[in-house]
């Protein structure tokens, strides 16, 4: 006897609204989860649960002996999604790939500034406009990228969300209709889920893409239930209102583990939390002032209060689980008296400063307000008066990049590709000043090491260069490194197929639920 068809709906309690739906424009993890990992694909992607690159829209590739030419063979028969707002007339081809790259760095491309203030922060911050010489269509299913110099992290970079492949045909239609802004509101890609609707600050709805080249998903409908309060996310999960949640409060983890209806996935996070001084603004342009402030903050107390044991104090800008981590580096020791004297010797007294506290939980910092309050109390002991400020999350990310920004910004990073370059150069390189480099710190000695490390494929040589770079970073102290956290993902026992990502992504391809 036949049974009535029923729809499987998977509900994910997410922590924040996306900044938009065009992954190239942004750097926020919540945006990548809501767009890049649902609607879109890339030429290459990371094998689930690893930092290992595997074929995606490109089924194979060749790299020239000199490391300057990458030739990608595209997968045949890949269909773009059909939505209420667009029906594609053709399959993925080389034109889509070239368009997806060129719009991010060619200033004469009509799409380069289609969103006011578009900076393509990742593409430019990683120096790709300087390293790419040209991108050519060899034939409909072959694309060649020629570089000006070898770039060892390139393949790993191409697996990242910012270089998702968009439809040139859809872009051309939006441009012809004078509705280019819809690219960032009504996304359309080749990915496992098709965008249906977004209710700002409430919910995003998707349906399984029936034409997905990787096969239709087991779940029919996917809902992101945007829930900014971690305690409320936990309540919803326990009540069965969502199947999986992001970033629980450390205080709630024991209770979630005790719930017989839940499973908890845990792993060391490939992450770091930091406080970035604006090194372009006095007196934070003085290394001794930055060092003094670092020595005044009890980081272990922050880790204990915010993470309750599920994090370790950070001394380097990359996590201990990453290759090239320099364990020989010594942290700035907690010493308020020495900090006070260092400020006096630097001629700084009556210092007033702002500390920016993130309005949302991130894996590397579950409660920025609490961390900022602890810093505020510590710094008061050495005569520094701190005002804590915050902004709506998308605004926070935007304003904190400004070169003339007032105050030290609390932020962090979860690695995107498993390569040290993705932390050290992306967050601290000269190319990233005014973007991901929130310290606005440009050090020639450090930057030269980054360039050398990119130009060699020898991992032993790259390791030496990155170890040396960490020594320079610690000496110059553009950040106060705060913590590396344990990543915890609670989910219903009904969930199968979810693989926790070392990159911190929430990816629902391959996920199923038992009813």
Automatic annotation (TrEMBL):
<dbReference type="Pfam" id="PF00496">
    <property type="entry name" value="SBP_bac_5"/>
</dbReference>
<dbReference type="InterPro" id="IPR030678">
    <property type="entry name" value="Peptide/Ni-bd"/>
</dbReference>
<dbReference type="InterPro" id="IPR039424">
    <property type="entry name" value="SBP_5"/>
</dbReference>
<comment type="similarity">
    <text>Belongs to the bacterial solute-binding protein 5 family.</text>
</comment>
<protein>
    <submittedName>
        <fullName>ABC transporter substrate-binding protein</fullName>
    </submittedName>
</protein>
<dbReference type="InterPro" id="IPR000914">
    <property type="entry name" value="SBP_5_dom"/>
</dbReference>
<dbReference type="InterPro" id="IPR023765">
    <property type="entry name" value="SBP_5_CS"/>
</dbReference>
<feature type="domain" description="Solute-binding protein family 5">
    <location>
        <begin position="52"/>
        <end position="432"/>
    </location>
</feature>
<keyword id="KW-0732">Signal</keyword>
